[in-house]
Write a structure and sequence with these properties.
By secondary structure, this protein is α/β, with parallel strands linked by helices. The chain contains five helices and seven strands.
Length: 148
Amino acid sequence: MKLLCDEMLKGLARWLRTSGYDVAMEPDGMPDRSLIERALAEQRVLLTRDRPMLSIRGANQVAVLLQSNGLEACAREITRKLDINWLLDPFSRCSRCNTPLIETERPAAFPPDIDQAFICPCCDKYYWQGGHVERMRLRLEYWQAEFR
């Protein structure tokens, strides 16, 4: 399942990417019609909290309206509506640009206790298994267990 999040759901989009989903985001201020056209063209599910967007032709084919406020509530709602698997393929995509990560050699500047490193071939951001990843993984595991 490929997703597209509008500007109101950027935080949710980053967590979905962290889970392994292909999630596109448009820059702030994109017209609603453009979001719907992109979702249709790329066969993406458009996630939005923008109720008026549903009145645009074609929106009902691709848009899922989230009623909730806040990250946790939206995560719970999307899990139920789209059967989201929060443990699909954790930490396999760049949270910044959505590109799949590739394993790379540990850069010399990294601490010596870092065994495995990944890089985004698009934006050159490095990723590694640190304490922050464990905290994020715990959150994903909680969502997987609690929201189903």
